[in-house]
Design a protein that fits this description.
The structure is a homodimer. Chain A is an alpha/beta fold. Chain A has 2 domains: 2-182, Glucose-6-phosphate isomerase like protein, domain 1 (Rossmann fold); 202-259, Glucose-6-phosphate isomerase like protein, domain 1 (Rossmann fold), CATH 3.40.50. Chain A contains 11 helices and 8 strands. In chain A, the strands form 2 sheets. The first copy, chain A, has a 5-stranded parallel β-sheet, sandwiched between helices. The interface between A and B is large, with 56 and 56 residues.
């Protein structure tokens, strides 16, 4: 059953996080290359869960080194051939499998245009791994459940590690992630026990807003995606400000809102 | 009734577009200032409908002058105080009323940090108009229906005019927009007659995906916002690629998809 595979992979999260942090030499190599370039723009690309992780990268890279990071439009480069200037940019491409065709194509074009290209993937030997100049293995292991769980967490952690490394705080961030892994290992059994009654109450929900701003926006997006793809709930992620600018009008006592 | 006010404002769209294009001197002033700076990054900010228009700006400014435009995180600067470098950036702030507090605050900080700041608003004398270095009046006139219609169209047109002006094609884009205004004036009565039977069939829809990629993504976002705020449909905008990366699993014969 898919649910069981997904649960098994959720349980692997602490181990996956620890495995990522242990990759000292890979982390240092990417961090050194980034520091040498001091990118004016960091272009994050990925789809689905990886694009949600990119939302977090905007804050991690903005808050620590103060870089402007964006979830870049893949279409603009790959399909429209826009004359975008890539020198001065670093590209961080996120993909579980490393096989997403338009992400691979985007990385090839950005690299040819002079960007520093970095692949974050579970499959360093993939097309994406080969297309990028540098690879940081996500080290989450294969995601069989398709609804990616440990990969999402390792994508966030990898972005935090790169942001930390850019300001000479790699060890500190690494230590923090190890602590998160320990806390997760402690909390997961209790969470699993607590979650069933809440889930039952939501069994007939057909639509939902998931609200989170800033650092929490990535979480809101990933929760909404998981609700949609695993529970068939039409869940839309919004910031609290987005909610006020229009969608608020849709709310009534039977329209659930999940606020982070 | 709100619906009647909204319809009246939709009918003003051709007039509003023509009014915008007639502002030769304002357009030329902003275009000259932009050309002098040749920004490496254009930061678009706004909420709701204005943020949807910003999605179009990413393509207009990417396709014509080849600039990297992004919908910037307002939180990162205004609430987190991230040490973002604003020199080398142009900011285009979009707001119907010019009174959105965090947009005004963002513009003040970006301007103090060295960005060229431009306000696109219907209210040039507003807080936003005063906070920005340059103002391009949207000239749509007040939006009484709240669900913004003519403002959205004028925001798209203003971004197209600025993108055109950046590559010396202001007259050509202006002529195109005048043609669009004529086509709109011709088509609106026929559209109004054709729309009722389609709307009736959707009266009991509670959720929907709206699909559009690239240049059409802004349209998909704005349609979804309008469905949510005026019809209380939980409509989520997605690119076709987003749809495949997860949400596809939610579809069944009773889950409507509006594809552009």
């Amino acid at each position: 059953m898919t649910g069981e595979v997904m649960l098994a992979e959720i349980r692997e999260q602490p181990l996956a996080l620890r495995r990522l942090v242990e990759q000292r030499s890979e982390l240092a190599a990417v961090a050194t290359a980034l520091a040498r370039r001091t990118p004016r723009i960091v272009r994050l690309v990925g789809h689905g869960t990886s694009d949600n992780a990119a939302s977090y990268g905007i804050y991690a890279l903005g808050l620590l080194p103060g870089w402007t990071a964006l979830r870049d439009s893949i279409s603009l480069t790959v399909y429209y051939g826009a004359p975008i200037e890539f020198r001065g940019s670093a590209v961080i491409a996120l993909s579980q499998s490393g096989r997403t065709p338009d992400v691979v194509e985007y990385v090839s074009r950005a690299r040819a245009g002079g960007a520093l290209t970095i692949a974050l993937t579970n499959e360093p030997a993939s097309e994406l791994g080969r297309a990028a100049e540098l690879v940081l293995p996500l080290a989450a292991g294969p995601e069989l459940a398709v609804a990616a769980t440990k990969t999402y967490l390792n994508e966030l952690a990898a972005l935090a590690l790169l942001a930390g490394a850019a300001v000479g705080r790699l060890d500190e961030v690494g230590e923090g992630i190890r602590r998160v892994a320990d806390l997760l290992a402690d909390s997961l059994p209790r969470l699993e026990a607590a979650v069933s009654p809440v889930a039952a109450a939501c069994a007939f929900v057909g639509r939902m807003f998931v609200i989170g701003r800033g650092l929490e926006y990535a979480t809101a997006r990933e929760i909404a995606l998981k609700l949609t793809e695993t529970c068939r709930v039409a869940a839309e992620p919004l910031t609290a400000t987005d909610l006020v600018h229009g969608p608020l009008a849709a709310l009534d006592p039977l329209f659930p809102v999940w606020a982070i």
